[in-house]
């Protein structure tokens, strides 16, 4: 190493020799060995942060690798304070795409957390391991499934995620699989992110999330070309129902979660300010409406493949005429009209009786989510045959563009189960 040159940090990268520290890991090792920096810097100043300042100076003078931008200390502190409103199982928090560990630093300062982190950059992970020895870190790529185990799920995830190139899709696909059904993620994102149109593959992932809370950043992000904010996201009620195969987890205590779910992973506490504050539309979803039959359309993409017979409709109409409609149907609000998500037989029976209206719950969801809900509802039928399941799976995969693993995740079944049903279609074609 060359003799120490007392440059300021602002001019260090223009004046340093090839032997002087270049990367963040280099500077960490240098400071550990020599207990000083190779540039003028007050390491004991209460409002200075060497890692951030060095990283910030470097990204101004060097190309950024792996979309790695440092999280400003004030923003990291802001995120850490928001975590105090939650009580995840085992006090575990995952800092996804942890970078230099700025968020980890303030999580540890808040105290009481079992902090974990991962990053694709081995140097960043090594930096975090050297500085934050009480936390656990791993090298991992969000897009590589071998990096993750089935039990790798968290009630609380924090991240300033990379959004360039394929990173946006990789991150939200990972988040969808890593968040527990009642979990929350505290993220730094561009304003209006969930209302913005992205690529088709990204847009297919986002409808399962909803924003529970958001607030302005206390400090601008480095080199950001967008207006950014902190958002707290969670799964929509519809997606939670899909995870639990139709069971309404919004009214399910952690003790009532099906045995196949890991109870220890269920969030136990959310301070009221971060509970999903239902909009007026969401309150409407909980009410039973009386909708005119003339404003309702059948779903052309209904995954139910079994033809409904006239006799079935007549029998159901007789029951409804005698006892009334005991269970409302579910409709998708399409603006001027409504489309059936499930309850087609009940609708046809009420129409046969010439009833003016029908009892219904009303939601406003994407085509993909409506299909998933309809599929889940069909799978609950006791009379469904394996071949009907296979045709339903095939139809949803075609319309939503899902792979077998993605469909299996959405409906809470194993890959092998879905594959075995799909295989029936090829067998059927051989005997036709």
Report what the structure shows.
There is one protein chain. Strands 5-4-3-6-7-9-8 form a seven-stranded mixed beta sheet. β4 (114-119), α6 (122-131) and β5 (136-139) form a beta-alpha-beta unit. The model is unreliable at 246-283 (pLDDT under 50). With 432 residues, it is α/β, with parallel strands linked by helices. The N and C termini lie far apart (77 Å). It has 16 helices and 14 strands. α13 packs antiparallel against α14.
Structure class: alpha/beta
End-to-end Cα distance:
77 Å
What is the string of helix and strand elements? EHHEHHEHEHEEHEHEEHHEEHEEHEHHHH
How do the strands line up in the largest sheet? 5-4-3-6-7-9-8
Number of helices: 16
What's the mean pLDDT score? 78
What is the helix fraction of residues, given as a range? Answer: 25-40%
Q: What is the radius of gyration?
A: 26 Å
Number of strands: 14
Low-confidence stretches: 246-283
Beta fraction:
15-25%
Categorize the overall geometry.
elongated
* Largest sheet geometry: 7 strands, mixed
Summarize the structure.
The protein is of the alpha/beta class and 432 residues long.
List keywords for this structure.
single chain, 7-stranded mixed β-sheet, alpha/beta, elongated, 432 residues
What's the arrangement of secondary structure elements?
Layout: E1 7-8, H1 9-15, H2 24-34, E2 39-40, H3 50-61, H4 73-83, E3 92-96, H5 102-110, E4 114-119, H6 122-131, E5 136-139, E6 154-159, H7 167-178, E7 179-190, H8 200-203, E8 209-216, E9 228-235, H9 237-243, H10 280-286, E10 289-292, E11 296-297, H11 310-323, E12 329-333, E13 338-342, H12 344-352, E14 357-363, H13 367-379, H14 386-400, H15 404-411, H16 415-430
Helix pairs in contact: 1-3, 4-5, 9-13, 11-12, 13-14, 14-16, 15-16
């Amino acid at each position: 190493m060359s003799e120490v040159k007392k440059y300021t940090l602002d001019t260090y990268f223009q004046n340093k020799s090839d032997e002087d520290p270049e990367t963040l890991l280099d500077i960490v090792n240098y400071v550990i060995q020599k207990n000083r920096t190779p540039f003028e810097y007050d390491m004991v100043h209460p409002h200075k942060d060497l890692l951030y300042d060095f990283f910030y100076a470097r990204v101004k003078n060097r190309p950024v690798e792996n979309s790695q931008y440092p999280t400003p200390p004030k923003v990291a502190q802001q995120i850490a304070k928001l975590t105090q409103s939650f009580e995840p199982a085992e006090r575990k928090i995952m800092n996804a795409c942890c970078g230099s560990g700025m968020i980890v630093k303030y999580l540890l300062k808040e105290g009481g957390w079992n902090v974990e982190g991962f990053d694709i950059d081995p140097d960043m992970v090594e930096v975090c391991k050297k500085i934050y020895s009480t936390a656990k870190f791993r090298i991992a790529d969000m897009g590589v499934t071998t990096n993750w185990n089935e039990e790798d799920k968290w009630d609380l995830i924090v991240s300033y995620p990379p959004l360039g190139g394929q990173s946006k899709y990789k991150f939200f696909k990972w988040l969808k699989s890593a968040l527990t059904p009642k979990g929350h993620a505290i993220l730094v994102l561009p304003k209006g992110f969930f209302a913005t149109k992205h690529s088709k593959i990204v847009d297919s992932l986002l409808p399962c999330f909803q924003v529970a809370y958001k607030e302005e950043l206390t400090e601008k992000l480095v080199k950001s070309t967008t207006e950014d904010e902190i958002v707290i996201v969670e799964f929509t009620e519809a997606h939670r129902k899909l995870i639990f195969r139709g069971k309404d987890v919004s009214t399910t205590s952690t003790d009532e979660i099906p045995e196949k779910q890991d109870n220890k992973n269920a969030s136990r506490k959310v301070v009221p300010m971060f509970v999903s504050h239902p909009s007026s539309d969401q309150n409407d979803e909980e009410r039973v409406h009386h909708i005119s039959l003339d404003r309702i359309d059948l779903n052309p993409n209904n995954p139910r493949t079994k033809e409904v017979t006239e006799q079935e409709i007549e029998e159901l109409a007789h029951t409804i005429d005698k006892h009334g409609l005991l269970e409302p149907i579910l409709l998708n609000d399409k603006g001027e009209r409504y489309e059936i998500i499930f309850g087609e037989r009940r609708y046809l029976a009420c129409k046969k009786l010439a009833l003016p209206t029908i009892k219904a719950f009303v939601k406003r969801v994407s085509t993909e989510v409506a299909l998933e809900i309809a599929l889940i509802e069909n799978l609950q039928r006791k009379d469904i045959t394996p071949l009907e399941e296979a045709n339903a799976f095939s139809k949803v995969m075609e319309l939503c563009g899902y792979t077998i693993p993605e469909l299996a995740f959405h409906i809470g079944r194993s890959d092998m189960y879905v594959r075995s049903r799909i295989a029936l279609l090829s067998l059927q074609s051989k005997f036709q």
